[in-house]
Known about the structure:
Elements: E1 3-6, H1 11-22, E2 29-33, H2 40-53, E3 58-60, H3 66-70, H4 94-107, E4 113-115, E5 135-137, H5 139-143, H6 147-156, H7 180-189, H8 191-203, H9 214-227
Parallel strand pairs: 1-2, 1-4, 2-3, 4-5
Amino acid sequence: MKHIVNFSGGKDSTAMLLRMIELNMPIDEIVFADTTLEYPELYDYIKKVEKYIKRKITIIKPKYDLDHFFYKKINSGKLMGQIRGFPFVITPCWIQRDMKVRGMEKLQSKGDYIYLGYAKGEEYRVQTDKTKKQIYKYPLIEWGWTERKCLDYIKEKGLYNLLYDKYKRLGCWLCPKQPTKDLRYIFENHPELWQKLLQYEKDSPHGFKPNIQLRDLEKKWKYQTKLK
């Protein structure tokens, strides 16, 4: 039986980890599931947290890269023979399942305690493990810590993640759920990632997300830049 902390680099999981260490709670392993699609700045932040806590953070990567899953053909149903393309906005994300969750599951054993950074107010995210293989714990909810409390706490520790000044939400840089503001930051600051997004949009059978075309956004932003 192990006590495994799921660490994403976001404010909530970071606050949970730091407070657990302060309270001398049992921690056998700290795990970051790297989809390989994180914002580049996040990897520097993980190193910063490691240095602060003086403990190793285990990084798990998927067996295959994004192209393997993105261009994989669907083998059943009405879309049989079509490539997967982008995850849909309103359905469970296959990237999270295939490139993150499954890697975590391989690390876990029956009876392990898994600590997740869901804040107070996110009780709706808590799911009962019907298999009863692992025991899921939600310290932030138990402590009554809100997202604001978590943010203030990591600021006090000098571990505020500067990504929050750039992006409204952290996660995969190609997530169709991200707001337009975040997409513009990618366009302006990570041109290599933006070009990949454009190529994926071209290849995906259903585009990036409904009513938004990345190339249209690019034209708009370039035009706005010329007007300045």
